[in-house]
Amino acid sequence: MKKFIISMMLICSGSAFSQVSVGTQAQENNRWTFGGGIGLGFGSNSSFNLSASPRVGYRLTDDLEGGVVGTVSWQTSNSYKSTMFGVGPFVNYYFARSFYLGANYQHYFIDYRDKYYDYKYNTEENALYLGGGYMQRIGNHSFMQIGVMYNVLWKENSSIFSSGLVPSIGFVVGL
Known about the structure:
Blueprint: H1 2-20, H2 24-29, E1 32-43, E2 47-59, E3 64-76, E4 80-95, E5 99-114, E6 119-139, E7 142-151, E8 165-173
Antiparallel strand pairs: 1-2, 1-8, 2-3, 3-4, 4-5, 5-6, 6-7, 7-8
């Protein structure tokens, strides 16, 4: 399954790259970046999670990028069903063309339904992710990013998230 997911991400990244790349000269003048990530998870009690986080950025300098990222997540199990939407700004600082540090603020809108008690509620939560990682070039101006972020606003008993730590894999075209 891991091989399938990684292969699909590489294919999506390759097709996105082929659509944006018009030539080296045009790419050098274009400061817009596009990318994102896709997540898939399975767990106990027949839990299933599918998420996507598209992003669009602008290179302020060769090493500093800012932009907007969105998040859509759908989760289900034997006992609950949840849909979550998030949006917010991000900033990434790149160094040595192989590493990055980043900050990402997200405001989430959550719709939760407990299947056993037929209990429903809607809530909102803020998250400020700080972290970084490694970048691997996969094409001309295309990179795969592998990193880890931590939600510094996370509180154990009052958050909908089970942890503040978030591993991430994503792709960026246009750097």
